[in-house]
Design goal:
The complex is a heterodimer of chains A (211) and B (108). With 211 residues, chain A is mainly alpha-helical. Chain A contains twelve helices and four strands, in the order H-H-H-H-H-H-E-E-H-H-H-H-E-E-H-H. Classes of the chains: A mainly alpha (211), B mainly alpha (108).
């Protein structure tokens, strides 16, 4: 004997179908499929980027660049002169680094990077930007009150240390070169690179910890 | 309030949702193919973020990516992807998901 159970049937119905994506996921799927059909972008290009920036490209690249700038004065000079060119020595050129400027921390200066307009960031050397970098709060406050923002990141600066805030644009992005920590004399490049953090290369960390 | 990174926290996926990564991948690809410029993207994204802020949207990752999606949709209109086409295609994908049994590939 059969009976009708609407609730049970509904549950079965939902189970039998593929998981329904969220509203924004459907919007993206619509846009993506139309753009591919019109030949505006290739599926492979999108897939490659997603794989690269979800898994592979990260701040280790920037850390290698910084470590070399500590061990090789001629490279440091090239980096400060034209960072976009200098990173080509590592093969790191690519997304949004055509115009990259490296800025160095010194005992009396500290550099902090922001994009007040949106979220411009040197993806090819630092990977995907952290969530806070894209937040409205950081974009507004890093310029208005950098010292306070840095305090929240546990960076306490003496009043005599000058802070430079660099506002990234679509045309020009920044990489902070932190100071080489004491006690690392004679270290090889890879070991030095392991000390360099993403936040230090944005400027929301100053002193690197020797581990 | 910001906070320093927790060195003990394991690195998670850099995107909370796959659609978020697709937006940035598409924007990058369309810039590279010359459909709009890096500057166009920055300004469209900046305007969408400002609008979200003005509308009182919460300062979250979701808000950021919804703004990025709006920016990409509006820039795509200049490349011939009209709002009505997007809307029809979205409905079509929704229907495709509804009619496809779980575990099967979803096709239009």
């Amino acid at each position: 004997m059969s009976s009708y159970d609407g609730k049970k049937l509904g549950a079965l119905h939902r189970h039998l179908h593929a998981h329904m994506p969220s509203d924004p996921a459907l919007r993206v799927k619509a846009l993506e499929s139309l753009a591919i059909e019109k030949g505006l972008v290739a599926q492979e290009t999108i897939d490659t980027w997603v794989e690269m920036y979800s898994e592979k490209v990260g701040p280790k690249r920037g850390a290698q660049v910084v470590a070399r700038s500590w061990t090789d004065p001629a490279f440091r000079e090239r980096l400060l002169d034209d960072a976009g060119q200098a990173i080509k020595e590592f093969g790191f050129e690519g997304h949004a680094t055509e115009h990259l400027r490296a800025v160095e921390n010194t005992p009396d200066t500290h550099n902090l990077v922001v994009c007040t307009l949106c979220s411009c960031y040197p993806f090819a050397v630092l990977g995907m930007s952290p969530i806070w970098y894209r937040s409205a709060a950081y974009r507004a406050r890093a310029v208005k009150d950098p010292r306070k923002v840095l305090e929240e990141f546990d960076v306490a600066l003496n009043d005599d240390i000058k802070i430079h805030v660099w506002d990234s644009t679509a045309e020009l992005r920044y990489l902070v070169i932190p100071e080489r920590p004491d006690g690392t004399e004679g270290w090889e490049e890879d070991r030095l690179a392991s000390l360099v953090t993403r936040n230090a290369m944005i400027g929301t960390q100053r002193d690197l910890k020797v581990t | 309030m910001f906070a320093p990174d927790d060195p003990l926290k394991p690195p998670g996926n850099r995107f909370s949702e796959p659609w978020q990564a697709t937006i940035l991948a598409m924007a990058t690809a369309m810039i590279r193919e010359g459909h709009f410029s890096q500057d166009d993207w920055a300004h469209a994204l900046g305007a969408a973020l400002k609008q979200a802020e003005d509308n009182g949207q919460p300062d979250t990752e979701e808000t950021y990516f919804l703004a990025a999606l709006s920016a990409l949709e509006s820039l795509s209109e200049t490349s011939g992807i009209a709002a009505k086409d997007r809307s029809a295609r979205k409905t079509a994908w929704g229907n495709a998901y509804r009619r496809t049994p779980h575990g099967q590939p979803v096709n239009l």
